[in-house]
Design a protein that fits this description.
With 134 residues, the protein is of the alpha+beta class. It is 24% helix and 40% strand. The longest helix has 19 residues, at 114-132.
Length: 134
C-alpha cells in the first residue's frame, strides 16, 4: 500500500458541526446543490458545468467537484486544488419524532485552522438561515 505523503501539506483532520434549521428538507436542499441557491448564501456567484462548481468570492474563483448528491439529504464536494481524501459535506438530518431539521457540516482543516473554519461555517449558516427566513 502506498501513501501519498506530502510534507509541505500539513495533515488535516475531520470535524463536524450541526445547526438547527427551520426549513423543509426539500427547500433546504435547493440551497445546497443549485447554483442559484448557493449563490444566495455560500458564495457571491456559483456556476456549474459537468459536476464542477465554480464558486466566486470577491472576484476570486475556487472550483469544487460534486462527489455525491442524495436528493433532499446531502451533498459532498471536493475542492479541486485539495488532496483527494478531503471533502466538505452538507447533510440534512430530520428527527423522526419531532420533524426538526438540522444541517450537519463535515469538513477538514489543519489543527491551527479548525476554529477559524468553524467560524466561517457559523457565519455562512447564519446567512443561510436569514436567507431562508427561518
Amino acid at each position: 500500500m502506498v501513501f501519498n505523503y506530502n510534507p509541505s501539506m500539513p495533515e488535516k483532520k475531520k470535524f463536524n458541526i450541526e445547526y438547527e434549521i427551520k426549513s423543509s428538507p426539500r427547500i433546504l436542499y435547493s440551497f445546497l446543490n443549485e447554483p442559484n441557491g448557493l449563490s444566495q448564501w455560500f458564495a457571491d456567484d456559483v456556476n456549474v458545468k459537468d459536476q464542477v462548481y465554480t464558486f466566486t468570492w470577491d472576484d476570486e474563483e475556487q472550483k469544487a467537484k460534486l462527489l455525491l448528491a442524495k436528493e433532499n439529504k446531502l451533498v459532498r464536494f471536493r475542492w479541486m486544488d485539495d488532496d483527494p481524501q478531503y471533502y466538505f459535506e452538507m447533510e440534512i438530518m430530520q428527527d423522526e419524532l419531532t420533524s426538526d431539521v438540522a444541517l450537519g457540516i463535515t469538513d477538514f482543516a489543519t489543527d491551527d485552522a479548525v476554529n477559524e473554519r468553524k467560524l466561517i461555517w457559523d457565519n455562512q449558516i447564519k446567512y443561510l438561515i436569514s436567507t431562508l427566513g427561518a
